[in-house]
Amino acid sequence: MKKLVKKRFRQIFREIHSWTVVQWVMALIYYILIWFVYLTSKKDIDGYDILKKYRNKPAIFVFWHGRTMMLSPLIAMAGVRGYAIASARKDGRAIAKLEKLFGLKTIYGSSSDDGVSALRKGVKVLRRGGNCLALSPDGPNGPSMRFHDGALYFAKMTGAPIVPVCVSSSRPWFQNRWDRYLLTKPFSIIKGSVKEPVFVDKNTDIKDFEILRKSLENLMVKQAYDLDKNFTDFKVEQDLTPDNFKDKAKQI
Length: 252
What we know:
The structure is a single chain. By secondary structure, the chain is of the alpha/beta class. The chain has one domain: Glycerol-3-phosphate (1)-acyltransferase (3-Layer(aba) Sandwich), CATH 3.40.1130. It contains nine helices and nine strands. It has a seven-stranded mixed sheet with strand order 1-9-6-2-5-3-4, with helices on both faces. Helix 2 crosses helix 5 and helix 6 packs parallel to helix 7. It starts with a helix and ends with a helix.
């Protein structure tokens, strides 16, 4: 009986959370809270000049799905304007409203839902010039910290560079979910890293394409681990999806 009540409560909550007005209210609340955390924290961003250099140029900013919280105000302060790739599902549309408050428009689609449409729209945006794309190469369903090749296709088809971005903090709370989403507490030290742009030649063959994909994945994993080890011994696991994370939790 207790399980049925919990299940019904979760269903009701998900239904209410899908309402547009509720999503906008929640987005505004999160927006205020995120800015409060950001403004009360000390920032130390390595490569911030790279972020500013490409704020008005075609570029593909990539970051792990679990590190978006402090990236939103960071790119807003750098004056970055462009588009974010988000899932067309309910959760993705809720996140899109929050990103819009931070100045990013939305292209809906992912590897699991209408990815071809997202690729077509993203290419059009980059070729038009003056806008960036922001996306998580391991989202929205993982596996965690595994670089899907969507960003590489954007880069290959448009000539826009891929720019890996990551943040960590001195007062982290890694949520108990597949991507170990990092919530930063107020009055933290926020350390960030913006790597040198990576270009993909339009004539890159399948073999070199995979080598480059793996190289970018390794770079971004190391980027995250190097930032985290300044503050914690915790290591975010690779290869977790929502489903296998739940299965793993049940076995504990």
